[in-house]
Amino acid sequence: MRWLVGWSSSAAAPSFLDGAQTADDYDLHPVGAQLVWGGPDPLWAVGDWRPDEIRVVGVAPLIRLAVFGVCGAGDEQLRVGLLAARGGAVRHLTAWSGGYTAVAQVGRRTTVLGDLAGARPVFHTAWDGGTAYATAALPLADLVEAELDVPHLAAQLACPDVPEALGDGTPYAGVHRVPPGHALTLREGAKEITGYEPRASLAVAAPSLDTEPAVEGVRDALVESVRARLAAPRHAPEPGFGGLDPGPVPGMGPADRRAARGPAPGIGADLSGGIASGTLALLAAGLPGAPGTPPGLGPGQGERLLAVTFNDLTARADEAELERARTIAANPRLHHVVVAAGESALPYADLESMPLTDEPGPSLVAAARHRRRLTAGGADHLVGVGAREVLDAHPARLADLLLDRRRRSLFRPVTALARAEGSVRTPLTVYRAARRLARTPYPAGIAEGAEALLDDPAGGLGADGAHRGGRGALDASLAALSWCRPGPAARWLTGEALAEVAVRLRGSAGTANGDGTGRPGERRAAAALAQSGADYRVFEQAAEVRFQRLHAPFLDNQVVRACRALPEALRVQPGARAAVLGAVLDGAGIRGLPPGWGATTAAAAAAASAERIGLRRAAPELADLFHRPLLADAGLVEGRVVRKALRAAADGAALPLAGLAELVSAELWLQRLMLRRGSVWTGDAAPRQRAVAGGVPPRLPL
């Protein structure tokens, strides 16, 4: 795990700190940190950062810029961006290709920029008369000895994709999150949070590009993001960690031996057969340069990209996707590896090995499953996470089209939905829901969401898990055509927890005062992207493989901006994502896509089948987990209710599996937090305690 931390104090620092060169010069510093710069407003990098992942440029004393991660800009471009930021134009620091965090210091003014997707967040807290910031929340919670914020945890379970319920909070009281697309500016301890993206009006749409220039922009941004990874120095596991295959070992199969070696040197990519991962793999293999391992470090001598396909043998795999992956892997610049997984890689398997992440997230229950796949990848591994959120149209965008009086653009999407549902009433039903959303003011929509949370937290599901009045894709679309809706785990929360979340929602609606910044579809799509970015960050921490870096180009700022420029009328059309990515590959000179490219797949059904099988196999362990759950001690759930739901889901009841995954992940995370020892801070002024779960009786040893 890697993170940054620094602070800004209102008082001038002692004179000896102005020339601080090491961590020992400070009475308080993170354990195992390297000092990026000292002085009264220091910055630290903590964790196993590679040398090329930390770049610092300066144009004058105390006017400097630090970039952490993969950034496609050269040093001269960084200096030009720093000069622009010196005058207040901080957006320039987010316009380069790659995934990175930028920190600019101009005298006593420090600016830390979060990304647009929320995958690289920034946190802050009041401390010692000033403000401390970090790219991880847990170190700041340690610093101020924070307690658990139970209301925020309730909101995270009840409405995970509703920013009005979550606010800027975190699971730790007093530790706050900078919203995506915003910058945190500190001046001698005082903080200011400002957005660096232009904001559109609710009534007037932002000018949009024509289809062809917009698709070309997506192509250029995606190619540059992949090229930034290819241009970075190649890495291999350190000597002594992996090495040669140990050969036959009693009780150790091929997958275990592969895990013992660690990731392969060079660059790899997921190749699931889907269009997102396939696009990245083909781009990485097709761009000029050596996509694979460094010369002399493995087969292929740097000429082939390592492509990893995960084949779940316990659930019904999508044979069409596997066949497409094999066809793509016939590319001579790809070295294909198929990871066959059995029962040991099911969701909910090996939960005891789950690490403590910064926050809870649904991906925690499948951390062992993800690690098995990623261990077979490269030291730098490309994943297609985020493609759906940045390219597909959120159903609420239909309301935006109505606001623009573009009713004709609704014809194809509602017709495709009617064809899938087999109902002639579907177009009228969807049109009415979209019109209602377009005519509902933002404060009224949030207030309605608070009422729905109390009246029907199951979101229209009956006691048997079946939807009342509809089914399938139509229900999902109708539920998304709202300003606010309950999450999948809300149905199992206690009435008190739901009432507290409803109060938060009403409070945000009461202070909105008709806030017109953003149209319904834009706001709902941005919230969905922020949730996806937060989930990806938890996934990255939970499935972390030593000496490996995951790269999600679709979540890069440059790609997100390019995708936002796509016309809404194009986004809502069926197959738009496949058409855009197909045009991206064609523009990059990659042709001959396999048959069925972009076709509807059964990947979601296969994932649900694997999750249900995993639930069935882990039923005894999950029953023990919720025998005396900490979530019940916090007043969020009743243990017997959750145990009953887990048994019913394992037996095949049509319950929302995503909600159960969130509950199990939250309980596991709480237990790991309570069992945690020590602190990340050291020195004479280090806090004596770690972050504790206030409000939850400490039944477990602290």
Verbal overview:
The protein is α+β, with helices and mostly antiparallel strands and 702 residues long. Helix content is 39%, strand content 14%. It is built from 25 helices and 19 strands. A hairpin with a 5-residue loop joins strand 3 and strand 4 (43-46). Helix 14 (442-455) runs antiparallel to helix 16 (495-510) and helix 21 packs across helix 24. The longest helix is centred in the C-terminal third of the chain and has 23 residues, at 520-542. Residues 240-244, 461-471 and 697-702 have low confidence and may be disordered.
Q: Give the helix level as a range of percent.
A: 25-40%
Unreliable residue runs: 240-244, 461-471, 697-702
- Number of distinct beta strands: 19
Structural class: alpha+beta
Reconstruct the topology from this structure.
Blueprint: E1 3-8, E2 29-30, E3 33-37, E4 43-46, E5 54-60, E6 63-69, H1 75-86, E7 100-106, E8 109-113, E9 123-127, E10 130-134, H2 137-144, H3 150-158, H4 163-166, E11 176-177, E12 182-187, E13 190-195, H5 211-231, H6 254-261, E14 264-270, H7 275-286, E15 305-312, H8 319-328, E16 334-341, H9 367-375, E17 378-382, H10 387-391, H11 397-403, H12 411-421, H13 426-439, H14 442-455, H15 472-480, H16 495-510, H17 520-542, E18 549-551, H18 557-564, H19 568-571, H20 576-587, H21 603-617, H22 619-625, H23 630-633, H24 639-650, H25 657-675, E19 681-682
Parallel strand pairs: 14-15, 14-17, 15-16, 17-18
Antiparallel strand pairs: 1-4, 1-10, 2-19, 3-4, 5-6, 6-7, 7-8, 8-12, 9-10, 9-11, 12-13
Helix pairs in contact: 3-16, 5-18, 5-20, 7-20, 11-13, 11-17, 12-13, 14-16, 21-24
